[in-house]
Every structure is written in C-alpha cells, then in structure tokens.
Amino acid sequence: MAQYSAAHYLLEALCEAGVEHIFCNLGTDHAPIIEELARWDAEGRAHPTIILCPHENVAVHMAGGFAAMTGRGQPVLVHVDAGTANAAMALHNLFRARLPVFLMAGRAPFTSHGELPGGRDNYVHFVQDPYDIASLVRPYIHWEYCLPSGVVAKEAVARGHAIMQAEPRAPVYMTLPREVLAEEIAEEKVRAYPVGRYAGLPARGTDPATATRIAEALMAAENPVAFTAYLGRNPEAVPLLDALAREVGMRVVEHAPIHLNIPHDSPCFAGFDPRALAAQTDCGLLLDVDVPWIPLTTKPNPDAVWLHLDVDPLKRDLPMWSFPAGLRVAGDGATLLAQVLEIIRARADAAFSARAAARIASWAPARRAREEAVAAAAAQPGAPDALNPAWALATLNRLIGAQDILLNEAIRNGPVVQAQMPRTVPGSYIGLAGGGLGFSGGMALGAKLACPGRRVVQVVGDGTFHFSTPDSVYATAQQYGLPIFTVVLDNRGWQAVKESTLRVYPAGAAKAGDNFQSRLDGRRNDARRRFEDVAVAFGAYGERAVAAEELEPAIRRCLEAVDGGQAAVLTIRVAPL
To answer: Using one digit for the tens of pLDDT, what is the confidence trace for 64-105?
Structure first.
C-alpha cells in the first residue's frame, strides 16, 4: 500500500472539504506542504487555488472577504508564531464579523539532532517556538488544535471545518509541526471524514409559541422599531426584513452597519441614528446587532417591550453587554423573520393593514427631511485641497452602480459614506465589525475573487490606508488580476483621535493648543503623501483630485481602468482635520 506524507493527507482533507482557495504567507515550516503541492502539480492533480499574499493582514482579510460574499470559510496558511501574530488583528475583525476562516500555522520543528525528517535546521526554528502559540489568537477563535499526526489530519480538518461553519460562525486555528507534516503514513491508516457527514449546525428558527409571541408584540405596537447591523450577512434576510417592516409598519435603524440590512430606498428605512427612535418606541426589536446604540447618548424607552432575535443574543464573547430584552431568541435571522412574517400575514385583517400603511405614510416628512439634510451637506464642493467629503462621496455615488460592492472604512467619514452612498441591493455593503483598521483592502480583494463580475469599491481614510499594508494589497491585486477601486479621503491625519480627545476633554489643553498628536503629514507644504503612488508601484492606476473640477473626470478614468482589469487608487484631498 502506498505511503504519503501528512501534508498529502492535509491537502486531501481540504479538497474533500470543498474549499476553493488557500491564502498563503509561507515560511520554512511549510516545506512538506510546498513539496506536496509541487508533486500534485507535476502529476496534474487538482487542488485548491494557492493565493500568495505578501502579508498576513491581507491573506486573512482576503479569506474574510470571500466568506462575506459566499458564506464559505477558506483556509489561510501562515508562518509559526510570527505569522500568527501578524494575522491576529485580522482574525479579531473576522471574529467580530462572525465570518469563518480556517487559520493554519506551521509550527517550529521540535527535534534538533536529525531524529525525524523535517527537524530543526535553521536559527529561527529555535526562536519561533513559544510556550503557548495559540494564546496569540485565542480570544478570536472557537476552536484550536495542534495536529499530532497525519493519521488524524482528515478528522481534524473535518472537525475544524464544522465548528468554523456553525453559527455563530467564527475563525478556527490549527498548528502544524514540521515533523508531523513530513511524516510518511500508509494510506490504509488514514480514515476519510467527508464534511457532508460531519457538518456544522444548520440554520434554525424558533418554536411556534415563541414566534407567535414575537408576532403578537409587533402587531400590538403603536411604534415598533427594529435596530440591526449584520442581519444582511445573509442576503436572503434583507427582503424579509423589508417585507416584515412594511407588513406591520415598523421603522428600521442601521446603527454602525456591517452589511446592508434593508434597502435604503424602503419607506421603512429610518437612517443610522438610533437615539430618538430608541426613546420613542413601544416595541423595540434588536435584530442581529452588537451595539444597537451608545448608552451614554441614548436612553431607550424603559416601558417598551424589547425583543432580541440574534444568531448570538447572549454575546458570550463580550465580557460586558447589557442592552435590554425581555425575550432573547437565538436563531438564523432569515428563518426567524420568515416565521414571524407568516404568522402576521395570517392574522392581519384589513383594519390592521390600513393602520400599518397609515403609519408608514406618516413617516414621509421625516424621510424627506433626512434626504434634504443629506443633499444640503453635499451641496458645496469645498475649497481646493480641502474638498467637502460629502460632496465628493455624492459624486462618487452617482458614478457607481447598485450592484457594485462598497466597503466602508472611512472611519471619521464613515457616517458620511453611509449617508451619501445609500445601497439597495443585498450583499452590496461591508463595514468594519471589529476595531482593527486596515481590513478593507484584503476584504475587497476577497470580495472581488468571490464576485469577479461585480465592481468592488473601497473607501478609506488616509490613516486607514497606512494600516492596510497597501503594498501587499496591490501586489496581490496585480498578481491575481483582481481590479479593485480604492478611494482615499486624505484629511492628513487621524480625525477619530482628535474627536475622541475632544469628547473626553472638550475644553482641555489639547483643544486650546490644537495639539492632538493626530497629524500624519506634518505642517509643511512639501509633506504631502501620495497614496496613489504606492499602488502605481504595484501595477495599479493612480490619480489624485485636489480641485472640484478634477474629481468626476478622475473617478471616470479610475473606473475605466478597473473595468479594463487594472486596480485603481484615487486620492481625494478633503478638508484637513
């Protein structure tokens, strides 16, 4: 019977799991995997596509972008503790976004005198062997394992894959010692573990009595309001929420949205500010949301009925979480909404439907006022070298399509992106779920890989651009033909740092001296940073717009480049902080 290395069985396990790609940042610990891939290629044997990323930040976020658009977690292969540490911030973001990824790190060899194939033969093998390598990512994973032998490689992959894909989805982590990967094992000793037979938990709803209780509460309400952020990670849930909102006359607020949760042209969409509606509602529906409002500035109605429907209503991974709910229901948002909607439609009579329609009609003036405020904010282009972000984003919005995928990592200008670039198509918006800046470059690449026929537009701030490891982003875009469009709103620093300081010390020394330690280009006229040039160095098309008349032609040229297969970066000089 034939013998193969554990690396061979690991690759077979990934093939049997149905993964399409392996996102890689390789090192000395991966030699058996590299050798096995070369052997498979020489034999013409199919395997997942290898995507080489010059930095782990891009590799992990790219897997996350692919998962965000498809729901399918992919493996990421990084290098020992160093690669794990570099991957930790991205893993944090994906964990908070509830996105699956299977992070695999090579492990430093453990033998030093030639006892086993693959043992230590290099200086770094001694210094890259920490006591607890998984501690680097343990807060951001739902499963960890160190592969002890290739005999269980397929079982371990099936187990990790099942947990990764189970709700609430999350990253998982496995380490791979080099001697284990190099171990030769007889084929008959390795059992198959087809993922179909060892799958994760299916999406689920709730029992009929609970669904009825939710439906009755919504039907009895005079002012129901839903607060949501990530319901739309399942695109099928978006039209269901819109239908439910129209059926009962319920407004929907997206606070710090991670996905599009209701079409922004729906008469029930109530914007992004939860403060007034949380105070006014008599039946509040918390729906797939981590932070429905900021308690310091929002006081919810204490007499309201609060219902929480969420894939993760207890927030077990958040040490402190205390938003109100008299009923918490764990389940799949689309399934739960479909259950409740069916009950309401069966019970609604003409009088109820008329009341719901009248309530929706009564919101028209507020909607017009919100639209007028958005238009007024974008009315003036601003001054040269200090363009108005709202005007610039409104211009960009006119030139992109409803099907285009928008990634919002503008941070200080993130709310401006939300207001000036409304989305209507499920799966057309991705925001930052975690706290690690620099997510959207890799995520944009992963989204483009998953959806090659759709444009991907990434809006970032200049501070965010630095965090994104941009040379790795555009090198990967160049190597694999992934044309993404990046718009950099350059306000010369960290506006979020300045605003945070002002919130805590509104009349402090920092304000008096305009000294916030947040400027990134200094105060010299020759200190301008040309972000587009970084991308140009790796094959992208680059432009910058300083004056109002430059912006629209520049956007059009960038879109033309993207549509022609070339990544593009446009720097827009907006009003400085």
So the answer is: 999 999 999 999 999 999 999 999 999 999 999 999 999 999
pTM attached to this predicted model: 0.94
| Residues 332/167, Cβ–Cβ less than 8 Å | yes
The packing angle between helices 333-347 and 208-220, to 10°, is 60
Q: Are residues 454 and 353 in the same domain?
A: no
Confidence of residue 128 (pLDDT cuts 50, 70, 90): confident
**Chain length of the chain:** 577
SS3 323: coil
Q: Which of 394, 417, 374, 421 is nearest to 548 (CA)?
A: 394
Measured from the Cβ of residue 548, the count of other Cβ atoms closer than 10 Å reads 17
Domains of the chain: total: 3
| 369 domain-assigned | no
The 10 Å Cβ neighbour count of residue 422 is 17
Six token digits for residue 123: 């200086």
Chain segment 200-215, per-residue pLDDT in tens:
677 789 999 999 999 9
The pLDDT assigned to 505 comes to 84
For the record, the structure tokens of 45 come out as 């044997």
DSSP calls for 35-80: HHHHHHHHHT---PEEEE-SSHHHHHHHHHHHHHHHS--EEEEE-H
Domain that holds residue 391: 378-573
Same domain, 296 and 177: no
Task: Flag whether 371 is in a domain.
Answer: no
Could you tell me if residue 486 is inside a domain? Answer: yes
Angle, helix 470-480 to helix 440-450, in steps of 10 degrees: 20
Pairing of strands 405-409, 3-5: unpaired
